[in-house]
Write a structure and sequence with these properties.
The protein has 477 residues and is α+β, with helices and mostly antiparallel strands. The protein has 3 domains: 46 residues, no CATH class; 244 residues, BirA Bifunctional Protein, domain 2; 97 residues, Anticodon-binding domain (Rossmann fold). The chain has 17 helices and 18 strands. An 8-stranded mixed β-sheet has the order 3-7-8-13-12-11-9-10, with helices on both faces. It has a 5-stranded mixed β-sheet with strand order 15-14-16-17-18, sandwiched between helices. The N terminus is likely disordered. The chain binds one RNA strand of 75 nucleotides through helix 1, helix 2, strand 1, strand 8 and strand 12.
Amino acid sequence: MPTKKIIKKKKEEKKPKKSTPTKIVKKENPQKSEQPSGEQRNAKGVRIPALLRGMKDILPKDEGVWKKMYHTAENISEAYGFGRIQTPVLEEASLFIRSVGRGTDVVDKEMYVFEDRDLAKICLRPEATASVARAYIVHGMVSLPQPVKMWYFGSMFRHDRPQAGRYREFHQFGAESIGDRDPVNDAELIVTAFNFLKELGISPVLHLNSIGTADDRAKYLVELSGYLRTKRSYLCEECKKRLLKNPLRVLDCKNEQCQSTIEESPQIVDSLSESSRNFFMKVIEYLDDLSVPYVLRHTLVRGLDYYTDTVFEFYEEETGEGSAQSALGGGGRYDGLVEELGGRPTPGCGFALGLERVAYAIKRNLDKEVKTDVKAKNNQVYFAQLGEQARRRALYLIEDLRHAGTVTYHNLSKTSLKNQLELANKYECPYTLILGQKEVQDGTIIIRDMESGIQEIVDQKKLKSILDKKIQSLTNA
RNA sequence: GUGGCCAUAGUGAAACGGUUAUCACGCGAGUUUGUGGAACUCGCAGUACGGGUUCAACUCCCGUUGGCCACCCCA
């Protein structure tokens, strides 16, 4: 009722403004413009809090997907012998500047950096590999059996321009294997990620390449830019800029004009040292043994500085690499990282998958095969009650059911049975328990099958066992 | 960070330079308080924000904010 009055007032206020000469309106303006623009207010003029740009609430309705991703990640990681590590969201900014690298967009343009109260530079982690490497050093994991295998699942932050499947806070599932330079580790990591995706009903396509050691890359860079410079006139405008800034990126250009030039360009594989080439061959062999399909893509270069040798990315089968957000994740080897961060020279490799994109892919698949989305609501029960006495008794019985692990819905504040049955229906509960005056007196309760409408009066003491049986038979069917 | 498209109740849509912004879903309250998935009645909630043009702006123009798309980059 009060809102009505307010609305009327608001409208009344508006009218005179419209009819008054502009001069008066202008006088009122400065007062209004003191408020920040772009904000929303309700009818009472109370500011409605907004979501920060690029941030997203994950709502109860999405929980199914997230729960599934978490459980799958946990099961698979543990099956492959990884232990979960949880590192802080906040880290020293220098950790990432040293590892990911100055000059990368992630560090230069996208990192959330703040001054702490003691003026130290801290940041919201943009990725987790550096944190895991830091933990490896700080906790003396050198003295554990090598490699040390760890997985993580959590939020990362990058101040990028938001788009579908790209948020400023996003979640990654990843795993690292630190302390052993053997191609089996690379292969194992890849299968882990691959199986995770497959388990979730996604058909992943693996793109694979090797970028060798830092020396190999330096050599290749000279060769590549030399080649590109001779073809400079054939390149698009963008690529001419890339040629100066980051020649490797030219290889990624989607411009048709550049494609033919790129195809004939020197390939990084040819610049690899003997050991890197052998290493890469081994990785490929192991993947064959594990029957993991892959596509060798010599143009694949990753954006973070710490990668060496093996690099890979996952795409969803049908989307391919066509659109910008189709990459589900990637990873690679980083043999110099631990040393770069002040630890002993220690090899390592890992992967990270973008869970928002994985969730996206899962949902797309569900839409396609409509029926896959059969939700298990079989284990939930609705409790309806009638009358004050019944309500009190209900409180106790519901408590009991919940202790026994039965998901019990209720709206004890409702008084009409009709109302409650309607809600039971909306919650999609297969059974409703009905407790009225009469049942309280007799110590019984009604179990109503919501689909058939068949009701059964049972002793309250036997409720749990009877209900369990019914639920059992539902889940089995 | 660059460029483009967009912005109407919680959701999805409609409307017009001019009466009180319409519809569906949703949510709430009822249709003689012991029976839902149907119907009916009533109610809730909106032109993102700020400015300009105009007698008159949800509608046209500018700015801001946000979303989407492409680039950049990446997950």
